[in-house]
Here is the input.
Amino acid sequence: MMRVVITGLGVITPIGSGSQSFWKALVAGTSGIRPVTSFDTSAFPVHIGAEVKDFSPAGHIRRPPESMGRGSQLAVAAALTAIEDSGVELRNFNRRRIGVSMGTTSGEPLFAERYNDIRKAEGLGAIPADLPPKYPCHVIPSNIAIEIEAHGPCLMIPTACAAGNYAIGYAFDLIRTGRVDLMLAGGADAFSRITYMGFARLGAIAGERCQPFDKNRQGMVPGEGAAVLILESLDAALARGARIYAEVLGYGLSCDSHHMTAAHPEGEGAVRAMAMAMKESRVTAEDIDYISAHGTGTPTNDRIESMAVRTMFGDRASKIPMSSIKSMLGHTMGAASAIEAAACALALQTGVIPPTINYEEPDPECDIDCVPNRARETHPRVVLNNAYAFGGNNASLCLARFER
Amino acid sequence: MAALSERIVITSAGVICSIGAGLEQFEQALYDGTSGLQNSTFCGDQIVTAEVRDFTPQLWLGNKGIRVLDRSARLLCVSAHMALDRSGFLASEQPERDPELGMICGTMFGGLHSIVSFDWSGLTEGPAYVNPMAFPNTVINSPAGQAAIKFKLRGINSTVCAGLASGLYAIEYGAESLRFGRARVLLAGGVEELCEESIIGFQRADVTSRSGSIRPFQGDADGTVLGEGAAMLTLETAESATARGAKPLAEISGFGCAHDATSTNAYQARAEGATAAIEQALEAAKIQPGQVGCIIAGANGSRAGDDMEARSLRNVFRSDIDALPVSAPKAAFGEAMGASGALCALAGAIAIGKRIAPPTIASGSSERNLRLSSKPQPFEKDFVLVNAFNCDGNNASLVLKRWIE
Here is the structure.
């Protein structure tokens, strides 16, 4: 079994794109949450979102941007950024041994929305021929594969808000068994009115800001973005003198099998996913020195997540720094855990952990150290990236500072 | 990390599609050459599809909790019910199901009708009037999530999208998860529902047959016919199967996948990726092409796709292909999209158990000199190759082995 490392990061987020500007914004506690501009929110009770504002796909993508949807555009841009960041020379690889695994919640939902817009305005007869083929979510990893000429395994794992962790775990397995030499793994989601409508109707969206773990937290904030991580074997990374952000130690998956949208009341599945990730990574609860929380900012999620961490770590739970970068980025859906994995890798590399912003009043039901408002230099060695999703899907990824 | 468990077997399956529900009915229809193609009930009777007619999920699932499930979740739950029942995992005396029992589900769209309808409701009635109960069905992993709740599957639960190759990717994902010991028993396969939106979408994209027929590998084929259904295979290690006295249907022997990376919407004429996928699958199975006894083709009547597959078979098997039985079962159950890889894999598992290739409906005058037949074709060897190639350049192949202890 080979050791697997992360050697490149590509992020396109509401607070900045490219690993350096993203990290700078994250450490500074920058919020990417603004009034929504993708569509008219006047009929909604809420109006904020975390959209990627400064994104021009034409600057990134070889093919005409209109040949693909926004989910693919964000994903391809993240992939190209990651490759550039890693310094990897793709021409030195057997193309059949380069693969892509991505995660998403909705894929290319803007085409489903356009289908309905056309249906309403002109009738179904007016649906253009080139619309349907751009919709299925598997086109997102395929568009990456085409852009970089990756001829290996290629798939989408649409496990909603935990999808990025699933995709990274899948890539980890392919690399460590030696089936593939280079994997591009991550997640992407475009800002969607379907998602916004759904969360708004559930009353889950905050009115003004995202305040994970705060006593007065009002909810989550839908967002969009993409992250792609470059995974390769440690040997290959050392051989090419690559910069190593972090090592992937293992992951754990579980299912609550309890409710489609609500977490298990005791976080039973979340605990099993963490335990499985740590067992596979051969680390103990004492080794974990940072947790990247799912931390959506909804009253229930943050309470149950805190409870799960307490079940897992006992009294140590309140001593392990556990921040939610969703306080800044909003909830970027299928991209979220991939962006958070990138943040974990940067934390391990720089020694700094990002804060939970907008934190004002402690909640006794969230008795954790959420790294309130200010980044902290703690030099973490082993971190857990937790992600939870609709369908009761739980995924925990364990990353470590690279040490020989 | 302990050594990986090498032998993964299929010990049971549940299936529902246009030609039947349940393993016995599916096998019977497959070998009788029964066609599932009929005029659509979704989209006017001018269109032919391969629907699950008179679908009554209550027969398997009872009435409780059915209302919240959309068609794709119902299809998946019915197939999962059958697979669990046959495997003895449905016993009601288990209050909390084994946390090492999980599901990997391939799909192309998830609940497409749920997604589009939810948006339509918001667009026409206003966001305040959308049904909050319908929102969870708009996530693509909803069918697998609903099945997990229904059957208390607490182990790993994942969904895979790779177009028509989804089912085979899901089976390999399941097999790999078992090799790593992440689960004890997994249901792996695929699901897809038919709905107005998928029918219109494929029609607009000019993929479906105007004549309403499906003629795999035939010179006069004019497109595919959409189908639907679900197939879930019960996967476990050979040790686990032996320990609980379950007799495997077949062994998962090798998987290969390769992407052509040229277009998201065109098959690659040179068949490089398809050829590589087959070669990798044979290599992973540690066998030579000559050891394959039968091929379950993914051919679905799309000229470009079928041409590519025929070329890939000739690239790998050379002149041996002339004598090798080939079945194209999508002629019977239609192109069931995210479910079709799993339906074909199940057909392959049945075929290798019987050592008889299923007949291909409407075969006869193949231009491509493949040994298709409207009659069942017996063979001698121990391996079957199953192909699933998607028009975005994603190609997957699976080799199954006859179960030998």
Q: What stands out?
A: Chain A has a mean pLDDT of 97. Chain A touches chain B through 81 residues (CB under 8 Å). Chain A has eleven helices and 15 strands. The CA atoms of residues 72 and 140 of chain A lie 5 Å apart.
